[in-house]
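Chain A, query sequence.
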Amino acid sequence: MTRVFSRCFVSAILLALIWPAQAEAAVAKPPSTGWHLGASVFHISRMDDWKNDIGYGARLGYWFPSRDYGTRHGPQLDVTHFSLDGDQPGIISDIDLTAVLFSYQFEVLFIPTDPRWSLYAGGGGGVVRGKVTQVGFGSGSDTAGAAQLMAGFEFHPFPHFGLRAGYRHFWFDNLSDGAVNVNSDSASQIEVGVTIRF
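Chain A, predicted structure.
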């Protein structure tokens, strides 16, 4: 009985040591460095003066080489567009926003033995171009500062293709062309997208 227990105990230890390495070897790793390109759809879940709406965007980034495969970091360029309906009847009818933001992003593996899952977080700033249509005043355009914070996760079913879901908090400064004015505002955004790594 003791021999059987000892053999089972030793086998369990060996399995615990070998299994993670086998599992990691069986999963194709996404590239740990290099360029990545992505596209996303955004749902605005909260914005003070605008109704909930959908936006879309594209991103281009680069992961710098890292000593540890489980972590990486690098810059990212985001271009996002929103078409929103005003939430103040008779005052502002709609606004089109196009934001160009330069961000810095960090990523860490979510499951150490499975490199397909990762968590990311980052933030940055840039500019937003807004075209506003206001009842009784026509329309106007202006450029202002903008910033964002982001966090979420990615899953790569294939080494060079991944799925992304996350949250972004977006802020922009006052927009004004003299006749049409929009106060600074912020938005909570839910993001769903894809990522291609080269």
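The beta strands are 34-47, 54-63, 71-85, 92-111, 114-134, 138-158, 161-172, 175-176, 181-182, 185-197. The mean pLDDT is 78.
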